[in-house]
């Protein structure tokens, strides 16, 4: 996969040289390039922003430097007939989640436009649709100073799904959100630590019981921390033991979906 990131603070993306993503770049699994937007300006001050039409606080990023930068990025796309995907981090975009990370991991070329100030001139987004599949994406329901933090998170979430990046692919299957639920709690040695014991089932060697315990812990943790995830959970094919556990947590299976009981 090729990834291009455009930012006025390219040094902000330095953490992408570390850990698994950095190793993936060294091993040739990920071709990641960071571009300084200011190199695409033409005035002596290398300015990338101006006052907003219509008034209001803050500044807006100018269209032409972005058009110049994105033109270069688009030309780097492999000649396979499709368009690269341009991700524009924005609190007004679709919510980023694990499902979207898996979707983006199937692409050959991703580009990220890191906005700053009050955002990028909207005409850039309209123009870019000629060269990219444009997707404004929000990391969450809050506002950051710029898109770089969101890009760090999204590149890591997508990059680790590429074949060969994570050493044990099975670990990806057991993570939070991979199946619509939060991950179960994990433990390591020693079995007794500061008067706190590892759950006995994990020491039993009974892999069937361990798997069931972990699954039930997922239900309990999700119900406690993210009950909204259970509202869309496909429960139609759950075994009786899982349905019983969910009943104890206050949920019943109705027409294949989980419904919170009024008495819970």
Automatic annotation (TrEMBL):
Q: Which GO terms describe its molecular function?
A: tRNA (guanine(37)-N1)-methyltransferase activity
Q: What residues bind S-adenosyl-L-methionine, as annotated? A: 115, 139-144
The record's top EC class is transferase
Chief subcellular location equals cytoplasm
- Keyword set, alphabetical order: Cytoplasm, Methyltransferase, S-adenosyl-L-methionine, Transferase, tRNA processing
What this protein catalyses is: guanosine(37) in tRNA + S-adenosyl-L-methionine = N(1)-methylguanosine(37) in tRNA + S-adenosyl-L-homocysteine + H(+)
Chain ranges of the tRNA methyltransferase TRMD/TRM10-type domain: 1-230
Question: Which EC number(s) does UniProt give?
Answer: 2.1.1.228
**A GO term (biological process) for this protein?**
tRNA N1-guanine methylation
Q: Where in the cell is it found?
A: Cytoplasm
Q: Which InterPro entries match?
A: Alpha/beta_knot_MTases, tRNA_m1G_MeTrfase_C_sf, tRNA_m1G_MeTrfase_TrmD, tRNA_m1G_MTases_N, tRNA_MeTrfase_TRMD/TRM10
One cellular component GO annotation, for this chain's record? cytosol
Q: What does this protein do, in the record's words?
A: Specifically methylates guanosine-37 in various tRNAs.
- What assembly does the database describe for this protein? Homodimer.
Cited NCBIfam families: PRK00026.1, trmD
**HAMAP family membership:** TrmD
Protein family according to the UniProt entry: Belongs to the RNA methyltransferase TrmD family.
> What is this protein's record name?
tRNA (guanine-N(1)-)-methyltransferase
State the organism named in the record.
Answer: Arthrobacter ulcerisalmonis
